[in-house]
Recover the amino acids of this structure.
């Protein structure tokens, strides 16, 4: 019955449809008005008209400049009404070239005409249905300038339509730059200054232009309207008395300008404008759609800045607001809340703890990973990744909720690239050595999954795969290491060592270091993979890699040198030994230290064959290289500047040295004792032998300060010529003088104390203290000889050497993936 009704409607409209093809203008106008009234408010009628093939005739009437303007306007309005139907209706219109015809009309119609207004309304309706036909609107500067002119000078309806169209069209850097050059920032500023409802399309346009574009955001910062810059206009619009969509749009623009670098994190318009507004819009009193958008925008605002994360976490009960948003039914709300939790917990452990303690959150995260909406699953994994940076939560909460189960299931179901990237980053953290989830994940095939990731074309996935394997191998059992090696394969390891991403190479070498740790594991692995491992190390050492990469390769050699049998593989490879000599003389200190680590493990005393290895290395020049290295390090303690003498001569010629000498003399003079009784006190102290004691003390200290260098005499002569020795003498006199007793009654007190025997007591006390510094035990020498004969002293020396050796890091610690 429904189909019959549609058919009857079509048949009844046949008469005025025929009139559309009439040559009389009046009949065409009448038919267009009838057709327009028929399709308004009825998707069924819209569909029937499109199916009847009337759209091409309407487009022809719109574009014919010879026709009555009223005909063109009515045809355009009818097209706009058809574009307000279903998504299928709009797709049919676009397929028949409607968007292209409308854009072409905008190039020629008068800006202030009714036809221009009708064209813009129809084009807006077409663009509102995703995907918008952005290809129909070329980045033509004349056209864009004309559109921005309409945005500044057109009617309110035309301005709103053109700004909406441009905001939907602006989808990339090219469009952003083109709009900025065409003056869109000025047009947006003019609309922002108008009534708040009219500012909403301008906010969408400004947000689209500033998103991740530093130059456009800076241009927007400098754009003014009526002496008010755009950030000031936006700050005015985020206030509480503005409509919620307007406040939301203004806060989003400020957010995008901050993330693009135009506004700093401590800018008042961010700290007191955008952030509090977004936190307020997340509260329970707000509509669900506004809350969802506000949570997602706040997540983007605080994503990378720790100070904003901390401020947001204490703003307007945000934690409880987000926990309530997670309970909303809409997928957009859940997605926004998870994203916001992920941003807040990105860097601060205390915030992560507060998020975890939010009632029922981990249950929602686990449920979110099983949500049918892909966007919600991705946001839930992002939240889990952020929280997985907490060592405490890895050991407790994550184990209680077994979050690894849904994550492993999610990653096994052929997820998209973005979800796989975030999920594998989370796996890196769940596989840390202290994580309880490590063992069950191994049982669920984590090794095989990660090895497959290293073969992906995406660099981020290869990095996450090898990073997680490195964490897994840290302090792992030998069977786990063997499983990694057999699954990854040496061919794939060589491919990873030639990866274009240096981070992948570093993590691959880190995996090798962790595999080759613990002496028994080193010997076991090298007995099976010795040729491949040695070849990998040689490839890196001979290749044009950065210093930090070569350092990792040398550390692998150092680990091999710690094996009981594996070190013989190094000693048998003269090419590697000669490279070791070269790196001991390398200008990079980190490479020298790594080469020292290798040499130290090879020549370690007390191990079988140490003497032979020492002789072998000495014959190859290692001993000579070590001696040169010691000399070089000693030399580095001197002045490293070759032009020091020239600079000193230059300063002397400018009178700087003379000024320093005068300053020294003035300071010495100011430090003289101002007491009138100083001469009497000095005579008294001389009679008591104090001055003689000071002279002896001076001689002793002078002797200790004697320069041991062979060139000391020349330097002393040079310093004497510059007045340094004179300065030292004055300094000595000053220090001697400061030891004088400044009290006028000191002589009387000293005589009184001497008569009472105090001075004699002090002398006895000094002698006793000197005596106590000697060995108090009469049999100490005998005990030491006894211990030496039993080998105790030798044992202590070996123990000290062993402890020094343990300070070398034999493996790369597992690290959290941020």
């Amino acid at each position: 019955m429904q189909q019959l009704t549609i058919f009857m409607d079509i048949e009844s409209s046949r008469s005025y449809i025929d009139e559309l093809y009439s040559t009389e203008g009046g009949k065409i106008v009448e038919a267009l008005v009838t057709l327009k009234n028929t399709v308004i408010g009825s998707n069924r009628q819209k569909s029937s008209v499109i199916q009847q093939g009337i759209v091409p005739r309407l487009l022809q009437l719109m574009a014919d400049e010879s026709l009555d303007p009223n005909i063109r306007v009515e045809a355009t309005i009818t097209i706009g009404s058809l574009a307000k139907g279903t998504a299928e209706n709009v797709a049919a219109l676009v397929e028949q070239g409607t968007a292209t015809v409308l854009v072409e009309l905008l190039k020629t119609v008068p800006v202030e005409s009714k036809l221009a207004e009708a064209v813009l309304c129809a084009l807006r309706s077409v663009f509102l249905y995703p995907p918008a036909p952005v290809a129909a609107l070329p980045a033509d500067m004349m056209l864009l300038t004309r559109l921005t002119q309409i945005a500044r000078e057109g009617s309110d309806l035309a301005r709103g339509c053109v700004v909406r169209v441009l905001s939907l069209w602006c989808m990339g850097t090219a469009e952003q730059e083109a709009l900025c050059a065409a003056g869109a920032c000025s047009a947006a500023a003019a609309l922002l200054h108008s009534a708040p409802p009219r500012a909403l399309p301008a906010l969408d346009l400004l947000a689209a232009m500033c998103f991740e574009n530093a130059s456009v955001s800076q241009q927007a910062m400098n754009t003014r309207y009526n002496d008010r810059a755009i950030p000031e206009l936006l700050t005015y619009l985020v206030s509480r008395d503005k409509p919620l969509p307007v406040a939301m749009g203004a806060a989003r623009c400020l957010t995008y300008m901050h993330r693009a670098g135009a506004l700093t994190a401590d800018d008042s318009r961010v700290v007191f404008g955008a952030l509090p507004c977004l936190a307020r819009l997340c509260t329970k009193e707000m509509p669900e759609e506004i809350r969802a958008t506000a949570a997602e925008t706040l997540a983007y605002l605080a994503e990378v800045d720790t100070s904003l994360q901390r401020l947001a976490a204490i703003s307007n009960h945000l934690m409880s607001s987000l926990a309530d948003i997670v309970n909303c039914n809409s997928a957009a709300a859940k997605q926004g809340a998870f994203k916001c939790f992920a941003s807040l917990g990105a860097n601060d452990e205390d915030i992560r703890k507060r998020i975890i303690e939010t009632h029922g959150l981990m249950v929602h995260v686990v449920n979110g990973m099983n949500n049918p909406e892909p966007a919600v699953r991705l946001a839930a994994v992002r939240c889990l990744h952020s929280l997985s940076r907490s060592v405490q939560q890895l050991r407790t909460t994550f184990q209680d909720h077994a979050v690894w189960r849904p994550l492993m299931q999610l990653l096994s179901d052929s997820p998209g690239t973005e979800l796989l990237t975030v999920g594998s980053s989370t796996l890196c953290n769940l596989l840390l050595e202290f994580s309880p989830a490590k063992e069950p994940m191994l049982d669920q095939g984590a090794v095989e999954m990660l090895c497959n990731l290293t073969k992906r074309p995406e660099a981020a996935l290869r990095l996450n795969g090898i990073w997680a394997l490195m964490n897994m191998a840290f302090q792992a059992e030998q069977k786990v290491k063997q499983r990694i090696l057999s699954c990854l394969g040496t061919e794939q390891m060589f491919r990873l060592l030639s990866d274009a991403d240096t981070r992948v190479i570093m993590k691959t070498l880190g995996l090798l270091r962790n595999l080759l740790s613990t002496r028994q594991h080193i010997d076991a692995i090298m007995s099976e993979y010795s040729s491949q491992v040695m070849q990998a190390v040689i490839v890196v050492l001979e290749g044009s890699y950065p210093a930090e990469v070569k350092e990792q390769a040398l550390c692998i050699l150092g680990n091999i040198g710690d094996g009981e049998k594996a070190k013989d593989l190094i000693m048998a490879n003269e090419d590697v030994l000669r490279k070791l000599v070269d790196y001991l003389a390398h200008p990079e200190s980190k490479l020298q230290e790594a080469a020292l680590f290798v040499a130290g493990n090879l020549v370690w005393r007390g191990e079988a064959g140490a003497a032979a290895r020492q002789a072998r290395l000495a014959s190859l020049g290692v001993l000579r290289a070590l001696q040169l290295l010691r000399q070089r390090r000693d030399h580095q303690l001197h002045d490293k500047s070759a032009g020091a003498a020239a600079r000193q001569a230059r300063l002397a010629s400018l009178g700087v040295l003379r000024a320093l000498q005068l300053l020294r003399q003035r300071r010495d003079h100011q430090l003289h004792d101002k007491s009138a009784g100083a001469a009497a006190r000095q005579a008294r102290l001389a009679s008591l032998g104090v001055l003689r004691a000071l002279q002896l003390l001076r001689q002793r200290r002078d002797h200790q300060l004697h320069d041991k260098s062979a060139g000391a005499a020349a330097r002393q002569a040079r310093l004497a010529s510059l007045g340094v020795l004179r300065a030292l003498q004055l300094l000595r006199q000053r220090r001697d003088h400061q030891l004088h007793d400044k009290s006028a009654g000191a002589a009387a007190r000293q005589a009184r104390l001497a008569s009472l025997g105090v001075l004699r007591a002090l002398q006895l006390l000094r002698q006793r203290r000197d005596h106590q510094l000697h060995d108090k035990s009469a049999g100490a020498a005998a005990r030491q000889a006894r211990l030496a004969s039993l080998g105790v002293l030798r044992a202590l020396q070996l123990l000290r050497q062993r402890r020094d050796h343990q300070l070398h890091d034999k493996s790369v610690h597992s690290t959290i993936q941020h």
Residues 617 and 749 are 72 Å apart (CA to CA). The longest strand covers residues 224-225. The radius of gyration is 42 Å. The mean pLDDT is 83.
